[in-house]
Amino acid sequence: MSRNCRFAVAVHVATLLAITGERPATSDWIAGSVNTNPVVVRRILAALGRAGLVRSQRGISGGSILARPAASITLRDLYRAVADEDAPPPTHNQPPNDACPVGAHIVEILVDVIGRAEAAKEAELAQTSVADVVARIPLCPNQAQESPANAGT
């Protein structure tokens, strides 16, 4: 799954968990909303758990909840939680020709530009919390009352 897709799913998951509050949500229930396989959701939940953003409990009454208030979790937190730190900056598939003046310098230039663009994106994501996302979701009156731990897909 691409980094951008993991980020979108992470925001979706965190938003659902914010809406459900202290009621644990199962990966099956979350997967129904995301429209994906529960295994994908469990991988995202594991990454969010490692980052200290989500707490999960196994068992019959298990599920996941946010580990902190939604207002204190930024989209940058989610982005960093699911980022692939080992992924190199997106440049050429093959090393460019060093004998060419462009080929000899283009990767260095692109890495610099992409790094600055990434920093700007993260700075922007830091300005939006999960609570801000929740505030933009038009909820049905009973949607927040559903019990996600026991709800089917």
Descriptive keywords:
single chain; 153 residues; mainly alpha; Arc Repressor Mutant, subunit A; 5% strand
Give structural notes.
The protein contains six helices and two strands. The chain has 153 residues and is mainly alpha-helical. Strands 1-2 form a two-stranded antiparallel sheet. The model is unreliable at 142-147 (pLDDT under 50). The protein has helices at 3-20, 27-34, 38-50, 75-82, 106-125, 130-135, and strands spanning 54-57, 63-66. It has a domain at 3-88 and 128-145: Winged helix-like DNA-binding domain superfamily/Winged helix DNA-binding domain (Arc Repressor Mutant, subunit A, Orthogonal Bundle), CATH 1.10.10.
Find the structural class using helix and strand composition: mainly alpha
The largest pleated sheet is described as: 2 strands, antiparallel
Distance between the termini: 22 Å
Query: Ranges with pLDDT <50 over ≥5 residues?
Result: 142-147
Percent range for helical residues?
40-55%
Radius of gyration: 19 Å
Topology:
Layout: H1 3-20, H2 27-34, H3 38-50, E1 54-57, E2 63-66, H4 75-82, H5 106-125, H6 130-135
Antiparallel strand pairs: 1-2
Helix pairs in contact: 1-3, 1-4, 2-3, 4-5
Produce a short descriptive summary:
It is built from six helices and two strands. It is mainly alpha-helical.
